[in-house]
Amino acid sequence: MKMLKLANLGGWLSAINETQRVYLPIEAADQVNYGVWTPDSVVRLDALRTVKSAKDAFFPQVENMMNFKTEGKNVSVEMIDPKVENFVVLGVRACDAKSFEILDRVFLSDPYDPFYAARREHSTVVTLACGRPDENCFCVNFGIDPADPKGDATMWIVDDTIYLRASTEKGEALVKDLEDADTAPVEAQQAKTREICEKLPFGKLNLKGFDGDHLMEKFNNPKWAELSRACLGCGTCTFVCPTCQCYDIRDFDTGNGVQRYRCWDSCMYSDFTLMAHGTNRPTQVERFRQRFMHKLVYFPSNNEGMYSCVGCGRCLAKCPQNLNIVKVIKALGGDEA
Amino acid sequence: MSNNITTEDILRISGVDTRKCMFCGKCSGTCPAFDEMEYHPHQFVYMVQWGMIDKLMESKSIYKCLTCFACLERCPRNVQPAKLIEAVRQAVIRQQGMNHMTENDIPGLLEDKLPQQAIVSAMRKYKK
Amino acid sequence: MPVNTEWKPKIVAFCCNWCSYAGADLAGSSRLAYPADVKIIRIPCSCRLNPLFILRAFQRGADGVILCGCHPGDCHYSTGNYYARRRMTLLFSMLNYLGIDSRRTRVEWVSAAEGAKFAATMNDFAKTITELGENVKLGDLRCKEN
Amino acid sequence: MQKIGVFVCWCGSNIAATVDVKAVANAMRSEPGVVFSTDYQYMCSENGQNLIKDAIRDYKLDGIVVCSCSPRMHEATFRKTAMAAGLNPYMVEIANIREQCSWIHKDMPEGTEKAMVLARAAIAKVKKNAPLTAGTSPVTKRALVIGGGIAGIQTALDVADAGYEVDIVEKSPTIGGRMAQLDKTFPTLDCAACILTPKMVEANQHEKINLITYSELENVSGFVGNFTARIRKKARHVDEKKCTGCGVCTEKCPSRKGLNEFNMGLNTRGAIYIPFAQAIPNLAVIDTSNCIHFKTGKCGICEKNCSAGAIKFDQEDEIIERKYGAIVVATGFKPIDASYFDEYAYTQSKDVVTSLEFERLMNAAGPSKGVLVRPSDGEHPHDITFIQCVGSRCSHDATKGKEYCSKICCMYTAKHAMLVREKYPDVNVHVFYIDVRTPGKNFDEFYRRAVEQYDVDYIKGMVGKVTVEGKKLHVQGSSLLSNDQLHIYSDMVVLATAIEPDPTARSIGTMLTASMDTNDFFTEAHPKLRPVESPTAGIFLSGVCQGPKDIPETVAQAGAAASKVIGLLSKNELVGNPCVAHANELLCNGCSQCERVCPYGAITYVEKEVRGPEFRGVKRVAQVNEAVCQGCGACTVTCPSTAMDLKGFSNNQIIAEVDAICR
Amino acid sequence: MQRELIERLNALIGEGVGKRVLGWKRGEFFYDTEPAILAADQLDELVYDSFCGPNLSKYLIQEMPKLGEGEKIIALIKPCDSYSFNQLCTEHRINKDKVYVIGVGCKGKIDVDKIRARGITGITGIDVDGDALTVHTLYGDEQVNRKEVLLNKCLSCKGKEHRVFDEQIGESEETSTGDDRFDMVKKLEAMSAEERFAFWRGELSKCIRCNACRNVCPACSCVKCVFDNPNTGVQNKAAADDFEENLFHIIRAFHVAGRCTDCGECSRVCPQGIPLHLLNRKFISDIDELYGEYQAGEEVGQRHPVINYTQGDCEPSIVHERGSNA
After folding, report:
1. Using CA atoms, how far apart are residues D377 and D263, in angstroms rounded to an integer?
2. pLDDT tens figures, E73-103
3. How do residues E177-207 score in pLDDT, each as one tens digit?
4. Which residues contact D465 (CB under 8 A, 6 or more apart)?
5. Which residues of E touch D614 (CB under 8 A)?
C-alpha cells in the first residue's frame, strides 16, 4: 500500500502527465464529468458519480471511422487507424470499473472493435473506492464491492490522504515512487462502507428470474405498458449509463467528401435501428422494454448470467420523470418469475 | 432673461411630441381660460416646436392655465398641450428665485371663501 | 484546384424574387460592381428564409449572410417580409446573445428599382465581413478540413 | 445517379468577356451527375435552343442547368425548350452568370471562379428538383356581389352585361345602399335618387342579375373559380311573388314604434314597411320585433288589408347554397357613432345631427318632407354650425375616432352649406375646419363657390365644445387665423362624422379569408398595381369597403372590379402555379400556425386518416389549396416540423444551393 | 389535500365524468414521483405533494386519440402547467372538450437535487412540516428550509391562478422570489460578446444530446422533430462538434419562440444542468421588449408574436444597435 497527501495530488498528476494523459472527474460549468487533466482543471475525486460514466474514455460519444474524399467524380477512401497513446483513467468507481468488463464482452469479442481495443490496451485504470454510497446505489446486487474496486491500481481517500494499491504492472508503474503506507485506515473505511451497504435501500434486490429461461415470460409481461407510461423517450438513461454500448454509424457530407463516424445511439429513440420498412418497436412501450430486457435478460443469457447493469444509480438520479431499472426489477422480479 | 431652455428640454419634461399636432385648434376651442391667456394652448404647441420658449416663460399665460386637461382630453391627435404648459411652468420654477409666489404673498391673498386646498395646490404649482 | 492562400470572405445573399433579385439584376445591367464573394440565392419571398438556411451557410463556411426583400408594405405577397422581419430580428438577437457578432447577419430591403442600393449594400456588407474576418465561432471544422 | 446537362451561354461578349465560358463548361463536366456540358454563343437563339433539345434527347438528360442571363429574363424560354424536348419544364435551373456575375466583375479569373460556383449551386439545386405539373381547376361562371349599394350594383351590371350570371346579396330589404339616402351629390348637385334609381331598376330587370335582398352571407368555402356560398334569406313574412308593393299594409299598420332606418331613425315607420318609395324590390317586410302579431299573436290588420294575400306570418328563413367563380366585396360603410363625442352634445340635443341625418332632413322624401326644421321643435333654424373632421384624423383613442381622413366630408359639408344658403338665404352658416381637402375634378371650384357665391362662413379652427343653452346651442371654438375663441349661438349643429367600414365587413373578411387592415378596410393585393383585388385569389373589392371614396371613384372601382371578374369568368379553367406549398401529412402536427400566416387563406385543416411507417390513425392535418396558394413560403418557415415545404424552392433545394456556394 | 383529491376523483369517476386520471404516483422514495395515468382501482397510488414538479400537460397529447366520442380524461393541472395546457389547446394538440381539468393547488415544488447540492446525500426520506424539511439519510438526519430548495421554475412562479380548470382543489401560493426572471438574461446581455460566447460554449458543450429538454417540452410536440428526420439535413443523434450543439439549441429555441410558456421543464430535466431556459427567456424578453408583453398560454386561441406582425415593427438592425458585438 502506498500513500499520497491529497494536497500533493496535483504534483503526482503532473508527473504522470509528462508521459501520458490523465482522464479523471473534472468540474466544468457546474457539472462533474471525466475530462483530460490540465493544471487548471478542477479535480473532483469527491464526486460520487460523474454525470456521464467513465466509458467515454474507451468509447467516446462521437468518433470518426473513415473519410471519403471527392474530387470531381472521383472518390477515395481513407481508413482511420486507431492509433492511441498510453493514458490513465483515474478515479473510476467500482461500478464503472465493472462496466469495463461488460463493455469488453461486447467490443472485444468477435467482431472485434479496433477503436475500443486500442484504447483499452493503452490505458491504465486507477479506481477509487467509495466511502459514502448514495441511496440510489445498488452495485452490491451485482457482486461489486464498492469498498474494494478492481483496477490496475486502486485508491482510497481517507481524510487528507490518498491510499493506493497497485494490482498490475501498469498500476505499479504509476505508484512505485510513492511513499509506503499502513493499511489500517483503509480497512477501517472499508468496514464502514460495507456497513452502509448493508443498509442501502436497494441493497437486496431480488433478481431471481431475470435470465434466459424466463425470457418470454418477462417479454410478455403486461406491466411494461404501465412501467413505460411516463417515459419521454429521451436518451438520458442510456447516455449516462456506463454499460450502454449501442451506436449508430452515420455519414457527414462536408461538401468535399464524407466523414463516416459513429455516435452513441439510444434504444429509447424512435429512430433507433430504423430501417427502410420502419421500426419494429413502434411505441415507447417496446423501446422501454428493449432497454431493460437487454440489461437484465438478453445480456445475462448470452454472458453466463452477467447482467449489463452495474448499479451505479445514474439512471435513477437522472431520469426526468423518475423511471428506472430498480422499478422494473421490483415490478417484474422476485416470486412472480 | 436668457433661460437656455430649449425645445428639447420642454419636450423631455412634458413627454409631448409636438409633431403630432395638425393645428386644428380644438384645444384652444375648448379652453375655458382662453380669454385670460396671452398665448393659447395651440400656440404653446407651435411656439414650443419653433423654439419660442422664452416668450412662453415670460408670459403670464402659464399661470392662467387651469390644468383642467380639457385640451388634452379633446385633442384628436393626443398632443397633450396641457402638459406642455406645465412643462414651461416647470422650466420657470426650476430657475432659482423665479417663484411666481412666495409664502409671504399668501396672507394678502387669503379670502374667506378661498378653500385651503386651493392655497396648498397653488403653492405646489407655483413654487418649487 | 488552385489553392488560394489569401482568405476571402464567403457571403451568401438570399434575395426575394420580386424585388431584391430584380434589384440585383438591375445592379448588373447598370454595371455596378460589388465583390465576387457575394453569391445570391433566389427565394420567392423573404419569408421563405428559414433560420436553418442561415445556420447551414455558417456551418458550411459562410462568413456573412444577408437577406434582401421588398420594402415593408411592398411585399409581393403582402405580408411576407413582415414575418421575415420578426423572425430575423429574433434570430439575429439570439446569435448575438450566443456571442456571435450580429454584424455577420443583416437584412436590407431593396426594391427592384434600387440597383444602386443593392450594389452599395453588398459593397458595405462585404467590407464589414472582411473587417470581421473569418467566421470561426459558428463554423463546422469538418467542412473546413480537406 | 441523375443525368444533368450544363449549357454555358456566352451571350456574345456579355458573359464571355469576363467569364471563361469554356473553362466553366469544362469544369462542370467533371461535376458528379453531369453527363453533358457545353458552351454556345447565344443559348436563347433558335440554334442554342436546338442544341439543348438535342442534348436532352441524345443524353436522356433528366435535368438541365443553363448558365446565362437572369432567370427573370429567359427562365420561361428555357422551360419551353425543355418541354419541347420532352423534359419537364421544372427540371430546368438557371445560373445567373450575366447580371450577377459577368456584368459586375471585371477580372476574368474572378468572374470565372464565381460563375463556376453559381453553376455548381444550380446543379446542386436541379438534382433536388422534381417534375412539377401545374394543376388546373374549372371556373364556375357566376359571380357573387356582397352588398347592393352603388358599388355592388355597378359591378353587377358590368359583369352581367358581359354575359355572366351575378347574384347580389344585400342585408337590408332593398338595394340602393347609402347613396339612396343622399339628397344631392357633389360637385354637380344632381339629385342622388335621379341618378341611382335607374341603376337600381336596371339591376332588378337585368336577366343575368339575381337580387337576394334581406339576406346575409353565412359561410363561404372553396377557392378561386370554385366558391360555394351559403346565404340566409331572412323571412320577410311577405310572399314576394304576391306582394305588389301597393303599400296599403304599411299605412294600416297600428305599430309605429320602429325607427325608420332609411331616415336615420329621425322618424318612425310601421312594423310592416317598405323602406322607401323607390325601394327595389318594391316589397313590404315585417319587422317582427315591433309587430303586434308576432308579440301578442293578435292584430293581423295587414293580413286583412292585403288584397293580394301576400302576408305570410309563418314564412321561414330560406338557405340558398350556390357556387360562384368570383366574389366581389362591396360592403360599403356607415358613419361612426357620434355619441362618443360628448363635447358636441350629440346625445344631449336633437338639434345636433350627423351629416347623414342632415341629408335626410334636407331630402324631400325625408321626415320633414324636405323643409329644413330643427328636429327638437320643428322651428326654422336661423343659424347652423357645421363641424368637420368629427372622428376623422384622430389618433387620440381608437374607440373615439379614426386615424384616417374620411375623404368625402369636406365636399359634402360644402354641399350642405351651399344647399342651405341657396334654399334659405336667411340662415347663417358656419363651417369649422382643420383643412379643406378638395382634390378632385371641380372640387375646389365647388368649395370656393360655397365661400364666394354663397357666403358660407368658413372658420379655420375646431369646435371645443357645444353646450345646450335654452333653445340655443352654444358653440365654442377657436378661430386660428384671428387667434380668437369664438362663441356662436346656433340653432343646429351638423357633425361631419367619419365613415367606417360596415360592421359586417370583419366577419365577411374572415369568411373569405380576405385580409383587412387595422381599420377593417379590405387590403388590396397590391396598393398600386392591383388595387381592386384582394390578396385572396378570386376575391375582388368594390367601393368604400377598400377605403374611403366618393361616388365617382366608387363607380370607377366597381367597373374595374367587374373587369377583373369578367377576365376570370371568361376562362374555362385556371392554370395554377405549380410552385406551391405542400404539407406532408405524416409530419404535420395540425398546429394551425401556417394557417395563421398564409396571406391567401390557402391552408385549411382536416381530420384525416393518415398511414405511415410510424403513425397510423386519424389526425388533424394541413391541406394546401394549390389553386389559391401563391408560393410565398411563409408557411414553410412557420412549420417547426418541416411538414410544409414549397415545391420548386424546397428546403432541400435551398440547402443544396447553400452547400454548393459555401463549399 | 391528497386525501381530499382522491375522494373527489373517486366521486368524479363514479359520476362518469371520466374513467382515468392523469396525475402522479409514488415511486421508490418520498421524493420520487412519477407521472401516471390511473384507473379507478389504482387511485390509492395517486400522490400529490411537494415533489410533483413535472408538467403533465404534454402527456395529454397521446391520450387524445385514445378517448372515444364524448369521453373525457381527468387531468391534474398546476397553475403553471395550465399555460402549457392552453397553448396545446391553441395548437389543437389537446381538445379541451376531452379533458376534465382539476386545477390543483400548488405552493411550490421541491428540487431534491438542490438538497443533494448541499452535500446531503444518501437521502432515504423527507418529512415536510410547513417550510421545515427533515431529510433522513443513510448518514443521519438533516434540516432544510423548504423555500431554499424549491425548483428553479418555482422561483419565477407565474402566480396562483389556473388559466384553465373545470374545478379547483387545494390552495395555491405564489412562490416567486420577486426577482426579475430576466435578470440572468440581462446579465448575459451586459457581458462582452467574448464572455457570452465563452459562457454558452461552456454550457452547450456539456450537451449529450439526450433530447430530454425537447421531449419534455410541451411546445416541442412535433410528430417528428427535424432533428430526427433524415430528410431535413440536420438529423443527428449526437452533436459531432460545437456547431451541432449550437444548431440544435438555437433551432429548438426558435421553434418554440412565441409558444414557450416558460414552464422551465427543459432546465429541470437536463442531466448536465444546462440552463436551457435562458435561451427561451431571451426570446421571451426580446418579444416582450420589441413586440409588446406576451405570455404564451394565457388564453386559448392567441396568435403568438412570431406568427404575427405590425407594420411598424422594428428592423432587424436593432440587434446591431442594441446588443454589444464587442
Report:
1. 18
2. 999 999 999 999 999 999 999 999 999 999 9
3. 888 899 999 999 999 999 999 999 999 999 9
4. B29, B30, B70, B74, D343, D344, D345, D476
5. 224
Handedness of CA E128, E132, E136, E137 (dihedral sign): positive
**CA-wise closest residue to E239 among C140, A29, A26:** C140
pLDDT at B125: 62
The ipTM is 0.85
Best of C98, C104, C107, C108 to disrupt the E interface (most E CBs within 10 Å) is: C98
CA distance B67 to B84: 11
Query: In sequence order, what DSSP letters do the residues of A248-303 get, joined into one string?
Result: EEEEEE-SSEEEEEEEE--TTSTTTT-BTTB-S--SHHHHHHHHHHIIIIIHHHHT
Task: Tell which CATH classification among 3.40.109.40, 3.30.390.10, 3.90.76.10, 3.50.50.60 matches the domain D142-234+317-332+502-569.
Answer: 3.50.50.60
Residue-range definition of the domain harbouring residue E119: 112-149
CB-based contact D641 E231, cutoff 8 Å: no
Q: Which amino acid is at D649?
A: F
Dist. CA D112–CA D135, nearest whole Å: 40
Please confirm whether the linkage preceding D187 is cis (ω < 30° from 0).
Answer: yes
- Grid cell at residue E199: 459562457
Q: H helices of chain B, where?
A: 7-14, 26-30, 41-49, 53-58, 61-64, 70-74, 81-94, 106-109, 116-126
CA separation for the pair B87, B94 (Å, rounded): 10
For residue D642 the three cell numbers come to: 418541416
Residue of E nearest to C132 (CA): E325
Best of E272, E274, E278 to mutate (most A CBs within 10 Å, chain A): E272
Grid cell digits, residue A273: 435501428
- Could you tell me which CATH class the domain B7-95 is placed in? mainly alpha
Contact D605 E92 (CB under 8 A): yes
What Rg value do the Cα atoms of chain A yield, rounded?
A: 21
Tell whether E206 is within 8 A of chain A (Cβ).
yes
Decide: D501 and D544 in contact? Cβ < 8 Å: yes
Residues of CATH 3.50.50.60 domain(s) within chain D?
A: 142-234+317-332+502-569, 333-500
Local structure of E103: helix, strand or coil: strand
Q: Which fold has domain D333-500?
A: FAD/NAD(P)-binding domain (3.50.50)
| High-pLDDT (> 90) share of chain B, % | 40
Give the DSSP per-residue string, C89-145: HHHHHHHHHTT--GGGEEEEE--TT-HHHHHHHHHHHHHHHHHH----SS--HHHH-
Give tens-digit pLDDT for E19-62: 999 999 988 888 889 999 999 999 999 999 999 999 999 999 99
Note whether D556 and D534 are within 8 A (CB): no
CB A170 within 8 A of CB A152: yes
Strand partners, D431: D386, D458
* Residue D473, C-beta contacts closer than 8 angstroms, at least 6 positions apart: D345, D349, D351, D352, D385, D466, D467, D489, D490, D491, D492, D493
Interface of A with E in 190-219 (CB under 8 A): 196, 199-202
- Looking at the whole model, is its pTM more than 0.80? no
Asked if residue D335 has pLDDT above 90, the reply is yes
Rounded to whole angstroms, the Cα distance separating D293 from D286 reads 10
Question: Where do the domains of chain C lie, and which CATH numbers do they carry?
Answer: 11-139 (3.40.50)
Contact of D102 with D14, CB cutoff 8 Å: yes
Residue closest to C136 by CA, chosen among E317, A61, E187, E193: E193
* Residue among E191, E198, E204, E275 nearest E243 (CA): E204
Q: Give B-chain residues touching D477 at CB under 8 angstroms.
A: 25-26, 29
CB contact under 8 A, A72 and D32: yes
In a domain, residue E211? The reply is yes
Read off the amino acid at residue A19.
Answer: T
